[in-house]
Design goal:
The chain has 658 residues and is of the alpha+beta class. 51% of the residues lie in helices and 14% in strands. It contains 27 helices and 17 strands. The strands form 3 sheets. It has an 8-stranded mixed β-sheet. Strands 3, 4, 7, 8 and 9 form a 5-stranded antiparallel β-sheet that branches. A hairpin with a 2-residue loop joins strand 3 and strand 4. It is globular. 37% of the residues are buried. This is TlpA disulfide reductase family protein. It holds the Pfam family AhpC-TSA. Residues 497-656 form the Thioredoxin domain. Residues 1-18 form the signal peptide.
């Protein structure tokens, strides 16, 4: 009876995976075996990729109960795309994703899948398990970025894993024991314990380190047997003092340590005993062992001690996934805040860049779910967005102009003039090298995207005067360079977020000690920019705000207040007025009030945050002539000209409000 049932299930599964004549994907042969070469045919008609000329494909294969990811070399002929693909001898199934730019076709999240067969006609080892685990993202054994929205039932996961173990016990019984027990328990709860205990007995017969770790997982969940778990932990730790469990315990110890000095020492010991390059990444990921944190503690200590040589040495061994975080924490922030001079940052920053470059043609294990082509694209994104922009500035500021320009040209291929910071750096470098034709191209394309800086406007004006002999008509010329579609889209978005709320009353003093009262400003359109000296994006937005202030300098009915808040320094008022003077900002500064027994001057800002359920700075508020709040804008997107235009549009809408 049992054999008949298994035969029926097998027949059902094979019918289920028989080739659908209406499917957009065809596999030849239809019942492929491991080791064969297959032909994959894709007809995108009726899919999100219909009519696209740049279709690519990624193939996910389940081999030896592990996922492998590769690109398919598609060729198009009369709208049909084909590829040959050689299956490995250990492949049990394959699934495909088709893409065109940001568009994907995964068969409506159902996948395009073929399960392979062995010589007996059954599904090959891995076929059943791969099909079950791929669609159960909550179990953590699927493929990232493929069918993550799919979560089949626990009974379905159990069904496919049970089939795998039944038909391929030699290959599957150990490696799938943990997800099998999890699915069984999730489906049957406590009634599953007798069968789970049989799995435990089976694993005990071969007490290897992997099996002991599997036993430990099962003891912890689903059996919740603390006595057995604790006892087994002691055995594992004594038998494998440098194994996975020892690594987990050491990481937990340093992670829970609160004293920073002790945490640093534990991090040094951890890396010495458990080098990253020798660690099992799959185990690290499932048990949340984060090497980035370990390296970060050491990097921060080096920064605190101004030991940049030590940071440089540490940078040369960083995992790929850690580099963006540590570069940001140690290089980017210090550069933007000017806490450390760029000459000191140059060597460790270069070391991180060189380390990052070492992964360009070698996909790191953390990104196993990306195909080689996907990794290349992801690498350029990580490289450009997380490192290049700051690195260009450091190189330029330290006189490494040629290296800075080469990096800027490379990063521009990724950003396509949509980063004001990069555009500014590239423009300044081209101006330095007197490459005026290339400079003009950068200035015009940057302005078209409205991603420019005040320095770039000056360069554009110089070029305009050089060509025309005077600056007459320059403002009209600049307006004509901007993409009208972007302006229209932004205006529509601003109209949709316009509000009409009562603004809390306030009284503050300006930089000269003069009292300014909100109630005395009726009839004027008011912009209040809440900021602080420690806020990097606040100060980064000031060049754009300067453009906006200068635009309305002759309009007596528009006033700007730059409200300094949340300061703790005893001499903050003098420091702020000196900062405004040094940077030639034509700003009227107001100082938020400091209440008795409070550490910071934030009385007005606190009330405004409470009234409008907001938090954090920079916060820009635009208030109409009747004292009603019309706009709240948070943060800074990076473009001075873009910010100035956004502020101008909000002011004009506010002036017209009734």
């Amino acid at each position: 009876m049992k054999k008949m049932l298994l035969g029926f299930i097998l027949l059902f599964a094979q019918v289920l995976f028989a080739q659908d004549p209406n499917s957009r994907v065809k596999f030849e042969p239809q019942r492929a075996k491991p080791g064969q070469e297959i032909i994959i045919t894709y007809n995108p008609e009726g899919s999100p990729l219909a009519g696209k000329k740049d279709i690519k494909a990624v193939v996910y294969t389940y081999e030896n109960y592990l996922w492998q990811v590769n690109d398919l070399a598609l060729k198009e002929e009369k709208g049909i795309w084909k590829a040959n693909f050689k299956l490995s001898n250990t492949c049990g199934m394959l699934s495909i994703k088709f893409t065109s730019g940001a568009l994907e076709d995964t068969n409506n999240d159902q996948s395009y899948t073929q399960m392979l067969v062995d010589d007996s006609g059954r599904f090959a080892p891995g076929g059943y398990a791969g099909w079950g685990l791929m669609r159960a993202s909550n179990y953590g054994y699927g493929v990232k970025n493929y069918l993550e929205k799919q979560n089949i039932s626990d009974s379905a996961v159990y069904f496919w894993l049970n089939q795998e173990i039944s038909f391929h016990p030699k290959e599957a019984s150990e490696v799938l024991s943990v997800p099998f027990c999890q699915a069984l328990f999730n489906m049957q709860r406590e009634s599953s314990f007798p069968r789970i205990n049989r799995v435990v007995s089976f694993l005990k017969k071969n007490p290897s380190e992997p099996n002991m770790m599997r036993l430990l997982s099962i003891y912890q969940r689903p059996l919740n047997n603390k006595i057995a778990s604790d006892s087994l932990e002691n055995v594992i730790l004594s038998t494998y003092p440098s194994g996975d469990l020892a690594r987990l315990k050491a990481y937990q110890q340093l992670n829970f340590e609160r004293d920073f000095g002790k945490k640093v020492e534990l991090s040094k010991s951890f890396l010495k005993q458990f080098p990253y390059r020798e660690a099992d990444y799959t185990f690290n990921e499932k048990r949340m062992i984060n090497y980035t944190n370990v390296y970060l503690f050491l990097a921060i200590q080096a920064m605190m001690q101004k030991d940049y040589a030590r940071l440089e040495a540490l940078s040369a061994e960083l995992p790929a996934i850690s580099i963006p975080t540590i570069y940001y924490k140690c290089i980017d922030i210090a550069h933007k805040r000017k806490d450390v001079d760029d000459a000191s940052l140059l060597a460790p920053a270069k070391a991180m860049f060189i380390r990052m470059e070492s992964f360009k043609n070698q996909r790191p294990v953390e990104y196993w779910y990306l195909s080689p082509e996907e990794w290349t694209a992801e690498y350029e994104k990580l490289y450009s967005q997380n490192l290049a922009l700051t690195q260009i500035g450091i190189l330029r500021n330290t006189g490494n102009f040629e290296e800075a320009l080469a990096l800027a040209n490379r990063a521009q291929k990724f950003f396509q003039f949509k980063s004001a910071l990069l555009n500014n750096e590239q423009a300044l470098l081209l101006d330095y090298f007197k490459k005026y034709d290339l400079l003009q191209d950068v200035l015009v394309k940057s302005m078209h995207e409205n991603q420019s800086s005040p320095e770039m406007l000056e360069l554009l004006k110089k070029d305009y005067i050089r060509a025309r002999g005077s600056e007459n008509g320059f403002d009209t010329y600049v307006s004509g360079l901007k993409n009208p579609e972007l302006a229209t889209k932004e205006l529509d978005e601003l109209k949709s977020i316009m509000i009409n709320k009562v603004m809390p009353d306030w009284t503050m003093k300006d930089g000269n000690g003069k009292v300014v009262k909100f109630k005395d400003l009726r009839g004027k359109t008011i912009l209040m920019d809440f900021w602080a000296t420690w806020c990097v994006p606040c100060k980064a937005s000031f060049p754009g705000m300067k453009l906006a202030v200068e635009k309305y300098k002759n309009d007596p009915n528009v006033v700007f207040f730059f409200v300094d808040t949340e300061e703790r320094s005893p001499n903050y008022k003098q420091e702020i007025m000196q900062y405004i003077k040094d940077n030639n900002y034509p700003f009227t500064v107001l100082f938020d009030n400091k209440l008795p027994n409070e550490k910071a001057n934030d009385e007005v800002f606190k009330r405004i945050c409470k009234a409008f359920t907001i938090s954090g700075i920079p916060q820009k508020l635009i208030i109409d002539k009747n004292g009603k709040l019309r706009f709240i804008t948070v943060g800074f997107k990076g473009s001075a000209t873009g910010l100035a235009d956004e502020i101008s549009a909000m002011i004009e809408l506010t002036k017209k409000a009734e």
